[in-house]
Amino acid sequence: MTPVRDAEFCEYVAARGERLRRFAYLCCGDWHRAEDAVQTALVRLYRAWPRVRPATVDAYTRRIVVNILISESRRLRFQRERVTDEPPETTARPDATAERVTLVAALLCIPGRLRAAVVLRYWEDLSVEQTARILGCSSGAVKNLSMRGLAALRERLTDTEFARIEGVQP
Amino acid sequence: MTRELARALDEEFAALTPPSDLSGTAIVQKGRTARRRRRGAFGGALAGVAVLVAGALLSGLLPLGGTTPPPPGEIAQPDYPLPAMDPDAGYVWHRSGGVDQVTDATAAIDEAWRAAFTAAAAETGAELYVNIDDSAPTGAEWVPFSEAEYRRVVRRENALFRIVGGTTWNPELEATGYVIPYFWAGDLALSRGPGQQADRLSVQVLPKGSFHPGAGQPLGAPVEPSAPYAVAGCEDYTYRLEPGSSPFEVDYTCTDGAGPGGERVLAVETVIANETSAFHRELTVVLYRLDGTAVVVEDSFVSFDAHRPGSLPDATALDAARLLDIALAMPGVPVA
User: Fold this and answer.
1) Tens of pLDDT along A122-141?
2) Whole-angstrom distance between the N-terminal and C-terminal Cα of chain A?
3) A:19-38 residues touching chain B, CB 8 A cutoff
4) Any idea of the CA torsion for A66, A71, A77, A78, to the nearest 10 degrees?
5) Burial level of B280, CB count in 10 A (0-12/13-18/19+)?
6) Tell me, what's the ipTM?
7) Is the Cβ–Cβ distance between B93 and B133 less than 8 Å?
8) I want to staple A167 with a disulfide (CB 3.0 to 4.6 A). Which of A6, B4, B175, B284 is the partner?
9) Would strands B212-216 and B229-232 be described as parallel, antiparallel, or unpaired?
């Protein structure tokens, strides 16, 4: 690529890398795996960079990250480890003795596909259709997953924490 | 609630995110190295194809030429929800139901398929051939295209089996009782003449609910996707025909994109090589339609009679954009 393109790509990584890493972490619950997945995704993105449209680059990159994490889970499955096609459901359980259950920890306790729908819809602020495209399912399925995801999240939060994300006092 | 959820998550992340080694410069360096490596391994062709495929899919240039009809509308498709499947088990499809059927739906697909491959032959300057005998010792007997020999798009049925033992070549299977109909045609080849490559073209339409989106990693030596995925990929792997024999390397290049209606599109190029050279290439495009069905179009190298190149050509006759064009041209009919 030209130096200008390389500079643009570096700017993108600087601006979006951290957000992508957090997204990957919410999908897999492991910072090391998250960083590896994002790095691999960005290398693939670099190869396609001259043709990528700015309007779709985020969605494209998130999709690569999701595919990498799913492929990784599948590979582990073939190594006879007990994992699923989806990001693990309970990679990090909240400490029962902790005074406060964090929102991130609660999210990591809900099933992978529900979690992905909640993260994409409400943290990444994507539309139902955009989320469906990334998850490879129908819009109806995304609505269903999001609703069940929020309900599952609600079950794992204290009234105080739930009130915090509702924006009202308990 | 949801706006507060995003804000609360951001606040927590600000406190718990560990430092990162992500660096744009380092990734650029890795990207350049990966590109050089791929070019070195495949004479520049594969990387070029990958970038072109990705570029074509991502830049919204597809479909080509503006001749493609609009994608199928939201027709009510019969649903074939998959049964509960053991995530630790392998699954395969096997044909069931015996006789190929021609129906109104397959006739509609066939009309579009004929138009598509006729146009493809004209564009590539290739001659059309048809396979007239699946039971031939070589797996096919190819003759020049004629109406009398042409084999139309048909309806078939597949049954899903769970692998319970045996080997990848000879697995022990257990029927799940799940059976699906699908439409298929694949006895067609494009050839540019003696000494040149020939490409077998196939089309498959899968019913709603009967597949997982994305690529399914092959379970072993036969390079078939693990059921119920529509295409194999995307992790490169090595297999041996028998213990101790020379290894075969399977190299995938998978590219995600979107169709004109926002459909998901997956393009997978597969190259198989042994210790001395690459000897097989195929390119598969899967269009995951908005009505829940999927169209799989494949261009796969095939050799017959004098239609054999001296070495493996760098690309299939039709590229991913052209295969997607064909997939988009298939009409939306009930797949049942």
Assistant:
1) 888 888 888 887 777 778 88
2) 55
3) 21-22, 31, 35, 38
4) 180
5) middle
6) 0.76
7) no
8) B4
9) parallel
